[in-house]
Amino acid sequence: MHGPAPAGWLLVALCAATGAYCLLRMRSPVEEQRRTAGGEALMGFGMAAMAVPAAVVTPPHWAWLACTAVFGVAALRALPSARSDPHHLHHLMGTVAMVYMAAVMTAAPATTQAHHVHGGTGVPVLTGMLLLYFTGYVLRSGARLLPVAVAPGPAARTVGWGDRPELSQACRLSMGIAMLAMLVTL
To 5 degrees, how large is the angle CA 38–CA 167–CA 181? Predict the structure, then answer.
């Protein structure tokens, strides 16, 4: 993506760390959590690869085509379950955003990839819609992480650190913020 190199490297580190945590979550005994964690790991590592600063490494044209294909397949796999589950709908939106960003980078001439993809034309409509969606998602996810008072009750079963819902929610929040940063620099 485009933007200052230090910010790009921070984005790479954040997305790679999130992807690594999601890989660890795949060891959960809960089938649905393993499947969700696998999709989120793919998103984390894919975002890390796409966030490498363009001033440092300019990927070849075929790399953007590969990203478009991989995330296109991921979007098609998320499509059937997106109707019944809001989290799967978000996963579908994330994969569609990745397909869109990779397609934009595929269509951009090599000379403009190191500068700006969209010249003085303003923000394209799809980019604006994705920015609005991910801004709402980040605000909602951040609000869900706020502590709430809980009345004392019977002790809940101890869960492993990979099965803690607040950690997986924090990872989703960080990937949402990273997606916003990537869309802004597109």
Answer: 75
Q: Domain of 24?
A: 5-59+105-146+160-185
Query: Would you say residue 97 lies in a domain?
Result: no
pLDDT at 128 over 70: yes
pTM score of the predicted model: 0.80
Beta carbons within 8 Å of 181's beta carbon, 6+ residues apart? 3, 7, 11, 51
Q: 166 lies in a domain?
A: yes
Nearest-Å Rg of the Cα atoms of the chain is 17
Q: Is residue 169 part of a domain?
A: yes
In a domain, 152, yes or no: no
> Distance (Å, rounded) from C-alpha 20 to C-alpha 178?
15
